[in-house]
Specification:
The chain has four helices and no strands. With 133 residues, the protein is an all-alpha fold.
Length: 133
């Protein structure tokens, strides 16, 4: 009975997704909530100025905040990776012929270099995605 359930449940799940997926798709559109509010005496307020700047320059405050946060995290990760490279290099020089210490230092060096590569790729991917939005 349990084997039958283990076989039946994944099949039922996939079928339910396949059958209900097309029916759940809808359309989404953005709503301009400031369409009629920035007229007359309210046109010089900070909100209306920001909305106007966002429409003309295409700058979204959420994307600006995301870019700043990602840059901070990338700087921290980059500094940590550079510190890891320096520490691993020192450990490698000070291994003194000990094979285990040298292997441990090489492993740390490898992890630090992989970390720098991941941070660089993450920056590239984020820049690509946020420039498409």
């Amino acid at each position: 009975m349990i084997k039958l359930l283990k076989l039946f449940l994944p099949i039922a799940f996939v079928l339910s997704l396949a059958l209900t997926g097309p029916g759940l798709q809808g359309s989404a559109s953005a709503v301009d909530v400031f369409q009629n509010t920035c007229g007359g005496s309210a046109s010089n307020t900070d909100v209306c100025n920001d909305v106007g700047k966002q429409k003309t320059e295409g700058t979204n405050p959420v994307i600006r905040i995301l870019k700043a946060a990602i840059n901070v995290v990338s700087y921290i990760a980059g500094i940590a990776a550079i510190i890891g490279i320096v520490v691993s290099g020192l450990r490698l020089m000070l291994a003194g012929g000990d094979a285990n210490a040298a292997a441990s230092a090489r492993t740390g060096l490898t992890y630090s270099l992989v970390g720098i590569a991941i941070v660089a790729l993450a920056q590239i991917i984020v820049a690509f995605v946020l420039n498409r939005v």
